[in-house]
Design a protein that fits this description.
By secondary structure, the protein is an alpha+beta fold. The protein has two domains: 206 residues, Cyclophilin, CATH 2.40.100.10; 87 residues, Hepatocyte Growth Factor, CATH 3.50.4.10. The protein is built from six helices and 17 strands. The radius of gyration is 20 Å and the shape is elongated. The structure holds 2-acetamido-2-deoxy-beta-D-glucopyranose. 2-acetamido-2-deoxy-beta-D-glucopyranose binds next to helix 4. GO terms for molecular function: peptidyl-prolyl cis-trans isomerase activity.
Length: 327
């Protein structure tokens, strides 16, 4: 994936190494159930949910981590007091919060773990489980100094969905707060602003002859161009963009919403790009029935361009974007 030339090329790419800790936790499960949903009714059920369907071992290594944001303290009403509940890792704290979700609404949507051994002292390992008044507007403790806490968010089934509004219709996107928390907080910030001045789609490429309407690659065809994606930016005018570290990087599926590098450019994939597994931070997935809107945008008039040797199709008229809340 190429960035649009001249877009924040001067920012050094900040590649954070995520420390791999526990085995598969919830992201894998969420993503698998999303792929199942994506493919609902159209497919070879045998393959769904298997790791090979998600791209194999590399993906297993890369996904499924319950992640938090370091040096962030989220506020909210405590449902379990950390002074009486200690665990060994942020992942365990996250898991404890998730365990309060079952199938209904989550009784816990926020976990806060005392993670800095030297500043936490005796409190190291405290795991506070909290519930926000509104999960989509989490309260944060403005840390004047460096916070000793690591925090994360958890949403239940049917929650964490936002609307990405275009003139061709609204794409409902399910976000992945547990796997891609920095991305999630960034999108919440855009929601809070209500406008997204400058956010737009500028590149549009169809599935061509290489991928079918379900996003499956057609045997022996090329992997593009066209590359079966729409690409744009979520950089808001007048707001400094904080680079997003590497988060959840599974295989790219039809409907995957992912950053190009550390953002603010992003793309929505129109096809299953297994050839891109482990490359892009995926922060959401488009509701399957809304993918027709993305396909439609991919058919708009374009002009050819070349970015760093890659042939791309740039929209003659960019499509402005805006976010709004769904739930
Ligand atoms: C932990 O806290 C100390 C100060 O007590 C600070 O110097 C250090 O950078 C912190 N570590 C992290 C990873 O935040």
């Amino acid at each position: 994936m190429r960035r649009k030339p001249n877009a924040s090329e001067s920012n050094p790419k900040c590649v954070h190494l995520i420390i791999l800790l526990l085995g598969l936790l919830s992201c894998g499960a969420v993503y698998m159930s999303m792929s199942r949903f994506n493919n609902h009714g159209n497919i070879n059920v045998d393959k769904i949910g298997t790791l090979s369907n998600l791209g194999g071992e590399n993906v297993q290594e890369n996904e499924g981590r319950c992640r938090g944001v370091e040096r962030l303290e989220l506020w909210g009403k405590a449902v379990k007091w950390g002074s009486e509940f200690k665990v060994n890792s942020p992942q365990e704290c996250c898991k404890a919060c998730q365990d309060m979700c079952n199938n209904g609404p989550c009784l816990c949507d926020t976990w806060v773990f005392c993670s800095n051994r030297s500043s936490c002292g005796d409190r190291f390992g405290e795991c506070w489980l909290k519930k926000q008044d509104d999960t989509m507007v989490p309260e944060r403790q403005e840390a004047g100094e460096v916070s000793m806490w690591t925090s994360g968010l958890v949403v239940g089934k049917g929650e964490g969905i936002i609307g990405l509004e275009t003139e061709y219709g609204t794409l409902h996107i399910t976000l992945f707060p547990t796997c891609s928390p920095h991305s999630f907080l960034h999108i919440l910030e855009l929601l809070r602003l209500r406008h997204c001045a400058g956010c737009h789609i500028f590149r549009a490429e169809s599935r061509g002859q290489s991928w079918d309407s379900q996003g499956n690659h057609i045997k022996d065809s090329s992997y593009g161009p066209p590359y079966a994606l729409i690409q744009g930016t979520l950089e808001v005018q007048g707001l400094e963009f904080q680079n997003i570290p590497n988060e959840f990087q599974p295989s790219i599926k039809r409907g995957s919403v992912a950053w190009v590098g550390s953002g603010p450019e992003f793309f929505i994939s129109l096809a299953n790009h297994d050839e891109w597994k482990g490359t892009y931070t995926v922060f959401g997935t488009v509701r399957p029935e809304d993918m027709a809107i993305a396909d439609r945008i991919a058919e708009l008039p374009t002009k050819p361009d070349v970015w760093e040797g890659i042939h791309v199709s740039v929209l003659k008229r960019p499509v402005p974007l805006k976010f709004h809340r769904i739930n």
